[in-house]
TrEMBL record:
Domain of life: Eukaryota
Key words, A-Z: Glycoprotein, Hydrolase, Protease, Signal
Signal peptide location: none
Family stated for the protein in its record: Belongs to the peptidase S28 family.
One Gene Ontology term of the molecular function aspect: dipeptidyl-peptidase activity
PANTHER family to which the protein is assigned, alphabetical: LYSOSOMAL PRO-X CARBOXYPEPTIDASE, PROTEASE S28 PRO-X CARBOXYPEPTIDASE-RELATED
Pfam family name, one: Peptidase_S28
Name of the protein in question: CSON004646 protein
Biological processes annotated in GO: proteolysis
């Protein structure tokens, strides 16, 4: 996003830009688009039972927490650093799981990676391999726990499950969390019908109150569209040139991406691409679509820079 906006705002300084996995239209799309695409990624990673099992896990966990015996079994199974005892505790765990499921899809690379957490190749497929059968009750809990360890404890060295953050401790997420309370205020909702999550409407007031509790700031309602729309035109890119917008179809952020080509704008669609896979270093297991995309980038970069540095000689 920053690459595209930098080119738009400072065309005299920036010759061209590659905006990879850039959801510049996220301000204007439906609030459930991220979760719809995310669900599709899990539905197609192994078989449809994966997303169906995930859709059932939320109520199954609520039922286990509702009885003392099963609550103890639940805590024992997941080995939380801080036990889950209340409904609010469970909501915190649900938020953690939402982040984990989103992160797995974003880094669903065809090789091992260590970006958000140490992960195997195609981690969503690995996750879904534990949920390939139609499951309920204790069987579902056990299988989901095994799947979760692919993200939370792939090294086998984690002693307990810390649900305070779904990000590697060396990375941290405070910077993004603050920015999402000030500049990048994107509506997010889920309905349990077109996605695999329990229904939750977008509530700007609650979002604003949460931001104030965390950082002492309250986003203005208009800021949801101000940055993208007023400053940079949102999805309207009239007159913009020399920008490549690439989107991987395995990336849930692609719902806010640019897919409509126009003069001066190049659109690249990578069917097997997760979040900014094309920006990562080349790897022997890269899909052909990524290899070809990088070749195109190099060709366009050379074309743009050769034009911008042309020397003119005038006769006396």
């Amino acid at each position: 996003m920053l690459a595209a906006w930098f080119r738009i705002k400072y065309p005299h300084l920036v010759t061209g830009a590659l905006a990879a996995s850039a959801p510049v239209r996220q301000f204007e799309v439906e609030c459930d688009i991220f979760n719809r695409i995310l669900t599709s990624v899990y539905k197609n990673a192994y078989n449809e039972n994966c997303s169906s099992n995930i859709a059932r896990i939320w109520d199954t966990m609520k039922q286990m927490l509702g009885q003392e015996k099963t609550k103890q079994e639940f805590n024992s199974k997941f080995k939380f650093c801080t036990p889950i005892n209340t409904t609010q505790d469970l909501e915190t765990f649900f938020d953690y799981l939402n982040d984990v499921l989103g992160n797995l899809a974003m880094v669903n690379y065809p090789y091992e990676s260590n970006f958000l957490a140490p992960l195997p190749a195609y981690p969503v497929r690995q996750f879904c391999s534990e949920l390939k059968e139609e499951l309920n009750g204790t069987q579902l809990i056990n299988a989901f726990h095994r799947a979760l360890t692919i993200y939370s404890n792939s090294t086998g060295k984690t002693s307990c499950l810390d649900i305070a953050s779904a990000y590697d401790s060396s990375m941290g997420d405070l910077g993004w969390n603050f920015q999402s309370c000030t500049e990048m205020v994107w509506s997010n909702c889920q309905n349990g019908t077109t996605d695999m999550f329990p229904p939750r409407a977008w509530d700007f007031r609650k979002y604003s109150d949460d931001c104030f509790k965390k950082f002492g700031v309250k986003p203005k309602n208009y800021s949801m569209n101000a940055l993208g729309e007023i400053r940079y035109g949102g999805g309207r890119l009239n007159g913009v040139t020399n920008i490549i917008f690439s989107n991987g179809l395995l990336d849930p952020w692609s719902g806010g991406g640019v897919f409509t080509s126009q003069q001066g704008i190049v659109i690249v669609v990578i069917p097997e691409g997760a979040h900014h896979l094309d920006l990562r270093a080349s790897h022997k297991d890269d899909p052909e679509s990524v290899v070809e995309a990088r070749k195109l980038y190099e060709k366009l970069f050379k074309k743009w820079t050769s034009k911008s540095h042309r020397t003119y000689h005038f006769k006396k």
